[in-house]
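FAQ: What does a multi-protein file look like?

Like this. Sequence, then tokens, then the next protein.
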Amino acid sequence: MPNRLRWDQDSDRHWNVWMGSERVCEVTCSGQFVVSSPDHTIEGGHSSLEGAVAQVQAWVRWSGV
């Protein structure tokens, strides 16, 4: 399931994460890589982009979306 995600980097420090036409969350780097979804179901701070990616992928597996 996590491979259905599309990560679009629109600046040096910002990514939007999409599943189809729905934005799942965004990741912003400002010291930490901060994950935030529009409905606040996915939130977190990580020291690396890989950590943020792992959180989002785990959420997709857990939620079954």
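And here is the next protein:
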Amino acid sequence: MIRLTPDTINEFLERFYSLYDSVIRKIEYCYMSSGIQEANIIISSQDKNNSLGWSNLRFFLSGVSEFTLHEGRTTCQILSDGIHIKWIENSIYISFASSSEPITTDEFRQSDLFAVCLSLFCDILPYSE
């Protein structure tokens, strides 16, 4: 499992083309008995290091304090504009549905699919639908 940090995120996003045109396969939100909230998101993405061209990524978000999923006339399943990740004031802001790169916390909150968490990890798994 890879811990995504400001030091590792650029290499990760480069390998997976910033997740442009990736496909969300599963979203799971968990309320732990400890009171901590977690999310698991599985995404199929192009992978520069995989000879088949694609891998599945299982993102593990821990210490989730905000999570929004809004499905309207368009779906969040296809990540046409990739993902955007930024560390702001000891939290990690992640947008899965922004047409432009959000800069401020308010801009992240305008996304139809976004989360705020304390730690972010990713497993790279074999591709499957």
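Q: Is there any per-entry metadata?
A: Some entries carry free-text notes. For the entry above: The chain is about 10% helix and 45% strand.
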